[in-house]
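Here is one chain, start to finish.
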Amino acid sequence: MAKFVFGMNLSLDGYVDHDAFAPDPVLFGHWTERVRGLTGSLYGRRIYEIMRYWDEDRPEWTPAERDFAEAWRRQPKWVVSRRLKMVGPNATLVSDHIEAAIRDLKARQGGEIDVAGPDLARSLTEWGLIDEYRLYFHPVVLGGGKPFFAASRPPLRLTASDRIGKDAIRLTYVPA
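Its structure:
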């Protein structure tokens, strides 16, 4: 059975926004290694559309960005969307019987599957499917935007705290 992990970069006041701040080189390397170690990723539509950036090489990329793109392209992706009609390479569209399809994915796979997108994570939380939450806090206050927790969540128990890179703190929680 797969372990579903919801983890994202977020501001001190709890918002996710890939345009507002970026990981330093150490944290970026951490994300690359994390992606390499995953069984795959389960994406909501919006975050998948953002991540499609990594599908095509860009001449301005650094070697670290090329490494991340290579790791990202290699892993299987499942994209939950009722709007999309097709998805890119190494991706499977999940658009019907979503809860049943995700439960089946969890039962069929092993290892860790990254859950990406607060709205998708909200649904998986309501269905009791998130096994772990990893919050990567950055020293930025946004004052608004898309919250990491899109709705109420179960009581959580802290299992780890780690500093990664110069400024990020990762807090790891499991449902209590």
